[in-house]
Amino acid sequence: MTIRPIRTQEDYDTALQLAHRLMARTDQQAIDDLEILQTLIEKWEKSLHQVVQTAPADAIKFRMSQRGLKPRDLEPYIGTKSRVSEVLNGQRQLTVDQIRALNAHLGIPVESLIGGIRHEPAAGRSTASTAAIEKLKKLGVMKARESIDTFLSRATAISPAVAMLRKSRTERTNAKTDFGALEAWCAAVMLKAETYEVKKNLSPDVTTAARDLAKLSTYPDWPDRLPSYLRDIGVVLVILEHLPGTYLDGAAMRKADGTPIIALTLRHDRLDNFWFTLLHEYAHVVRHLGGEYPLILDDLEVNSSDGIEAEADEFARNALIPPELWSASVSDDFDGEELEAVAAEAGVHPAIVAGRWRYENSDYRKFARMLGRGEVRKHFLTDSD
Question: N- to C-terminal Cα distance for the chain?
Fold first, then answer.
């Protein structure tokens, strides 16, 4: 099969017909040929429409028409049936992960999927689900007879950053996220943070502070020491469960007066997860928060190649266990005694070492009983939570 450059409309039509035939085949040669052909087709299309700004929904519909796809075929890349419908109707902006999936699997140019920057969901009444609203009331951060719009207005009056989701970092946001619920969760965090006072204008040595935070994990009374230590270095710690549809582990944001906030959901009740998430968000607070990034939201189960997320991951790993100690002491056949020794030398809880080894070796059976399951939520969340 000969694939030729596309120079005329006739070449373009022929290429489309060939692409349709290749789509029906599953052999590697056909897959490779189709990838080359798609590149040529996109190059030709761009040459004809260089100045035309295509709405993301129109770009998706165009590719659906080319490939004979139905809305349900988009669910693996966009999320639920309702989410697909909102995107195709232009009611919801695509997330970074959705854009990447559509580009990788359907070959839609990234620039056609980005669209204009706007709040998700579209301006207007909040789209937070009934389940999310009921959870806010159960948690005691929303008044029993308060509407969601009144609640958001109350939070925004205290801290305008609540209205900044449109500028937030959502690189690690799940494709199924309910952005109305996410906005409500951020508002609740701001309202809770407003009740805490911290020391102001402090500039602690970042590396030292991070190591000190990690070492708190060894104290029996760490749940009391941790919020106090963070207050002493000018950071508010807010623990608030995630709401239905938010899929959050943690976030970094600022109060109206600029005070940084680390917010954790305790979605996974394990010591290893807790300390890694805490140090990850602390990295965002000291390295990335502010200016372009007023809020940074993280679902750490979502893989990310984003620069600031990779930097926060590395920062957390090194703060918990110095890199030279890890490289010199850890092996594939690591055992319990060696694990305890590394934890002692690093000055951290053994669960932190166990969690990292399991993750890096993709072995989630080993050290399963050393992760500190059930040792976090009981210290921060009441029975009503």
Answer: 63
